[in-house]
């Protein structure tokens, strides 16, 4: 019997607290405890990703005399950015997806050559340029593949994209730079 009395004495204060705390307060306490707020400063990858989000919209440029339209769209509840390039001169629509994984910023380019280079991005010290360099690649590389892409934000209505492709047969990389103007 003394053992039972000791258990009641131990549990009684806990029971009284549970009965005295209003139900709404207990619920908010449990929600606070189970969902802590993230007060950590954003990583460099997250900062660069947020910078790229400012490019959401439709852009017009020219490459080798051909008009190019690029659409950037924030998608997946803000967790990815879709970059799609279209041109009336070529029927392909290459797509690049940007996303943060842990403390790293990645781009996966879905190329019309049938490959998918994955590149890691870093922001420049001045915060205006995000450069992506090749990490790995999946798919057919016989026609070459993208190994670098860079975005320089000039202002709200202008940005530059620079790209580099590894070509087959030990040829020098093919490089382009396109100046874009926002049209939407």
Describe the model.
This protein is of the alpha+beta class. 22% of the residues lie in helices and 47% in strands. The protein has 3 helices and 10 strands, in the order αααββββββββββ. The protein has a 10-stranded antiparallel barrel with strand order 1-2-3-4-5-6-7-8-9-10. The protein starts with a helix and ends with a strand. Residues 4-8 and 11-33 have low confidence and may be disordered.
Question: How would you concisely characterize the structure shown here?
Answer:
This protein is α+β, with helices and mostly antiparallel strands and about 180 residues long. It is about 20% helix and about 45% strand.
Alpha carbon gyration radius: 26 Å
The coarse silhouette is: globular
Provide the CATH architecture of the largest domain. Answer: Beta Barrel
- Overall pLDDT confidence: 84
Strand order of the largest sheet: 1-2-3-4-5-6-7-8-9-10
Q: For the terminal residues, how far apart are their CA atoms?
A: 80 Å
Assigned CATH class of the largest domain: Mainly Beta
Number of strands: 10
Total tally of structural domains: 2
């Amino acid at each position: 019997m003394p053992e039972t009395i000791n258990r009641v004495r131990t549990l009684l204060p806990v029971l009284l607290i549970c009965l005295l705390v209003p139900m709404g307060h207990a619920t908010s306490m449990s929600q606070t405890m189970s969902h802590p707020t993230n007060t950590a400063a954003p990583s460099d990858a997250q900062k660069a990703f947020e910078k790229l989000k400012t490019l959401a919209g439709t852009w017009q440029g020219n490459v080798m005399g051909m008009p190019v339209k690029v659409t950037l769209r924030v998608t997946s509840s803000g967790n990815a950015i879709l970059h799609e390039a279209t041109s009336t001169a070529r029927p392909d629509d290459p797509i690049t997806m940007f996303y943060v994984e842990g403390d790293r910023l990645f781009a996966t380019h879905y190329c019309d050559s049938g490959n998918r280079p994955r590149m890691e991005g870093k922001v420049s010290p001045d915060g205006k340029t995000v450069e992506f360099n090749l990490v790995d690649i999946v798919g057919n590389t016989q026609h070459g593949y993208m190994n670098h892409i860079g975005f320089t934000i000039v202002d709200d209505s202008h940005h530059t994209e620079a790209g580099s492709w590894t070509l087959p047969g030990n040829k020098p990389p093919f490089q382009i730079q396109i100046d874009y103007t926002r049209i939407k």
